[in-house]
Design goal:
The protein is α/β, with parallel strands linked by helices. About 30% of the residues lie in helices and about 30% in strands.
């Protein structure tokens, strides 16, 4: 009997300890510090794909507090007096979509702002330039067609939404979207940037001074500039191919291409949240001479994009 009583007592201790440490099924917004802001406070989501793109902004956050959900670190605080939540989307479309939705589910996000580097598509642009596109497309949302003769690729007859010119077997097509603003699914090629945010960007760029050199004194030979308007495209590929770059410019009239912005624009549209992206050219997506230049110029490009974003936040009333 004594043994049984001792066993039951031990079980009671274990059960009590287990109850004390079992997490609640409700989402926890407990931060790494005890004085974290409430998740319900309206904030602007500021995103980048990888750490160097967010570094300049992270250093300028006032009252920074950090929380981690699903392995993603979120930093809340203020930038240029605006309440923000900063985080990394991760590289590529799926990561960007997933972590944008994670932020929307965990925080009261009123607007989404993306900043980072991109490949240049428009031959009139140069490395270091910053593009604030007013439309984004998922240009690799595509059908891979059958080759019916050497070099001739034809989609199946039932694929009636294939309208854009192809690149070999790759035939772009719209993506089906469901959103808060429409009762039924719709097919979209382009996701619009919020026009009011574009208007703020147009006002802000006059005050921006872009840099030619990064902290390690890797310098551009020209003075970079900001372009507001035009098209951007995003897909699951790192592009370093001159022929595909020319095709993308010709077909989509794109200024830049990257691996996240259109995915974030898609999620923002589905949730009815205004979106804008700032992208600075780190390379020419295969259009330059010699080896791709992203390793040389990604720092100056990333910081230039962040500088435009800071000017944008300062001009936003």
């Amino acid at each position: 009997m004594t043994m049984i009583r001792n066993l039951l007592a031990c079980m009671g201790v274990l059960l009590a300890a287990g109850c004390a440490t079992t997490p609640s099924s409700a989402p926890s917004f407990a931060p790494s510090s005890s004085s974290a802001p409430q998740a319900s406070e309206p904030r602007v989501a500021v995103m980048s794909a990888f750490a160097p793109e967010l570094a300049l902004l992270q250093a300028k956050v006032a009252g920074a507090r950090r929380q981690t959900f699903n392995g993603v670190e979120f930093t809340t605080g203020t930038l240029e007096g605006k309440p923000v939540v900063l985080f990394l989307s991760g590289i590529s479309m799926v990561n960007a979509s997933m972590n944008t939705q994670l932020a929307l589910d965990r925080f009261h996000v009123t607007h989404i702002v993306f900043t980072g580097i991109a490949g240049g598509v428009d031959p009139n642009l140069r490395i270091g330039d910053v593009v604030v596109a007013d439309q984004w497309s998922e240009y690799l949302e595509a059908l891979f067609a059958r080759e019916v003769a050497p070099g001739r690729f034809v989609p199946p007859s039932h694929q009636t939404d294939v309208k854009l010119p192809n690149f070999g077997m790759i035939h772009p097509r719209p993506v089906e979207v469901r959103s808060t603003g429409h009762a039924d699914a719709e097919k979209k090629v382009w996701f619009d940037v919020d026009p009011q945010l574009i208007a703020v960007a147009r006002r802000a760029v006059a005050a921006v001074k872009l840099e030619r050199c990064d902290a390690e004194r890797q310098c551009l030979e020209h003075q970079p500039s900001v372009v507001v308007g035009g098209h951007g495209v995003s897909g699951q590929a790192f592009v370093d191919n001159a022929a595909f770059r020319e095709y993308t410019f010709r077909t989509f009239h794109a200024s830049v291409l990257d691996m996240e912005s259109a995915a974030v624009a898609h999620v923002a549209y589905s949730n009815g949240v205004p979106f804008i992206a700032f992208r600075s050219l780190s390379d020419l997506a295969g259009g330059g001479e010699g080896e791709n230049q992203i390793k040389t110029f990604f720092r100056v490009a990333a910081d230039n994009s962040a500088r435009v974003l800071l000017a944008f936040l300062a001009a936003w009333k």
